[in-house]
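Technical appendix A lists one of the benchmark inputs used to test multi-chain prediction within the project. The record comprises two sequence entries:
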Amino acid sequence: MSPAPDTATATAPVIAARRLVKTYGIGDAVVHALAGVDLTVQQGDYVAIMGSSGSGKSTLMNILGCLDVPTTGRYLLDGIDVGGLDERQLSLVRNRKIGFIFQSFNLVPRTNALAQVELPLAYAGVKAAERRRRAMAALTMVGLADRAEHKPNELSGGQQQRVAVARALVTSPAMLLADEPTGNLDSHSTKEVLGIVDRLNDSGRTVVLITHEDEVAHHAKRVIRLVDGLIVSDERQAPVEGPPPAMAGAAGALTRGGVR
Amino acid sequence: MNPLETLRFAVLGLSANKVRSGLTMLGILIGVAAVILLLAVGNGSSQAVKDSIDALGTNALTVSSGAGFGAQSTATSTKPLTIDDARALADQSQAPDIKGVAPEVQTSQTALYEGTSHTVSSVIGTYPAYFEASNSKVVQGDYFSNDDVLAARKVAVIGSTTATDLFGTASPIGKKIVLGGTPLTVVGELATKGSGTGFQDPDDVIIAPLPTVQNAYSGFGSLSQILVEASSADTTTQAQNEITTVLMGTHGIKDPTAVDFRVSSQTTLLSTRSSTTQTFTVLLGAVAAISLLVGGIGITNIMLVTVTERTREIGLRKAIGAPKGVILSQFLAESTLLSLIGAGLGVAVALIGAHFTIVGIKPVVIPASVWGAFAIAVAIGLFFGSYPASRAASLRPIEALRHE
């Protein structure tokens, strides 16, 4: 499930959404959170979805994350039509295909980092030894192997978000869905977390990132702007193949492993 | 998710709030312990009643004067029981199922021995047949004989409590006591009968020949009661009918509904007593069951609080792929674990508590009540936990994640 970047375009798109509409309320009080969004995201792409509050970006993120269903429209995630799935199948899809990163980290309290990262694997029914091995590998990837036994309240905000990133990538999902991942972090931790996300994308992982900060959007290969539930601009900053712009731009200093 | 994993999550969840979990368990603990212990007390008291009635002798029938409280009698006048009634009952041709007859007079007197004074609650004047009918055995000395009765000798057989109070550890045999001004020679000491029905100590007794007691204290009037021993436990009913027939003859009564005496057997006494203790046990059990129910409601309450508190966590777990069933079983496991541990500790407390005497009753634990209370407590955990758990499981992830 982690194809090399150069083969990405040949396979089915990770996201294929057609005329997504989401309305809340009824009658005169009806609100169109999404008013017909078409979106295709190829494997290996790094998309930033931007918009002010009320633009519908959170609704879009919920639908893309299979946490909510569109009122009308069709959404194919990694080739699977999500519309026809029941709750049980949806939880399976979330477990296998999506890695969530939230603004407020959302770690399980009183549970150490290793157990946090093991959690999605536990729900997927992976055996304990294998689970441990994969969780440790994911924690190593975010540079927190030495903090495996620490609980959330013993970690800094940046470290907590890195644990959340490890948890999101441990199942090798089709895409990472990050909702304002740096919204609660200081500039140093922001750099750290974004560096890890860049690196993950560089190694072929599809990333969809929701943000309202331009600095964060600069890391993406493609920037989509939402206004009133409609896509108003869609600009590409870097090709789908190849490294994300932040890594390419700093090529001189950061050729190998830009983040440490 | 295997069951072991679910259990591990449940333990983690419970240990996160130790005080709260502990208090919730306490509710179940008290409920279970109360059910087991109170039923044991009820059972213990009915056991005690049964034992004391056995000690009175199972073949014994008691004839007393007057219409009973239970038996609605239309007797206009009451003839007292006399020695002649007793003699008539002793006639084998009229009452073949009667083995022994002991007329009784009862009084209460103060006994003196070398400066020690003791008020004996029951001084009984009777015939030697009394000893067998009432299941009284001597451990020291001997019973008094028919000769002693005929000669109205001043002899007495005393109960164990009376003996200890007057003589301490010394043997009372052959000693002279002064009972209500009359000197009596102790010829025998009775075996201890035990705590009895609770109202009167059956071992605090002095038994003397009937004419001796009549002479000294009660006078030659009516008898207090007549103790009759049936030939066997199976013939008590026949013996009871024979007594009624004979006494109707001696009292000149034609109408069997208008008798002026009452025949009660130990079995009727037993059934009244045991039905009383049964009611008592049921009441105690009901009170205990209510406390168990309250404990169960405590579980629901605490689990609802827990679910509300952990809404975000539930939302997150669902977002990263926990199916509904896993969330449901996690919270059910928590509530069942609460009740399981609470019930286990409750059983332990009850079993320890049953070693102590409670309000004079030695509790006798009913094994079925232990399993029953335990099973009910666990079922309560499942039942009362199912509402909060299903609420947790049906939370929608986006709303749960947004929850503050």
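The helical segments of chain A are 57-64, 87-97, 113-124, 128-141, 157-169, 187-202, 214-217, 245-249. The two ends of chain A are 25 Å apart (CA to CA). Comparable benchmark entries are summarised in Table A2.
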